[in-house]
Amino acid sequence: xxxxxxxxxxxxxxxxxxxxxxxxxxxxxxxxxxxxxxxxxxxxxxxxxxxxxxxxxxxxxxxxxxxxxxxxxxxxxxxxxxxxxxxxxxxxxxxxxxxxxxxxxxxxxxxxxxxxxxxxxx
Length: 122
Known about the structure:
- The chain has 122 residues and is an alpha+beta fold.
- It has a domain at 24-100.
- It has two helices and four strands; from the N terminus they run βαβαββ.
C-alpha cells in the first residue's frame, strides 16, 4: 500500500515534533544521495546533495510539518529530526535533519531573506 492523499489542518508545532511517538513506522525516512540516486565512488559519496524520502505515511507527516512551519503565526523557528539516539523524528536507518528558519539561533544569513544562488557576483 502507498499513501496518495493528505487532508491538512494547520496545527502548532514543536522543535522535536514527534518526540512522544513510540511507533517509528509513521516517521519520515530520509536518505542523502545524488540526483541519480547512484553512489558508486568515494567522490559520489562526498558530493551527495539530494535528499530522498521513502514513500510512507511519514512523508505526509513531514509535509504537514513544513506547511505548519510556514504559517505566519508559527513561533517555532528551528526543528530537529533525529534518530532514536536523539529526540526522535525520523525512522530507523534515516538521515537526520535540522531545519533553521529566519529568527532561529542557527540562521546564518544577516537578514530574513535567503540569498539567491543565481544572483550575479559583485
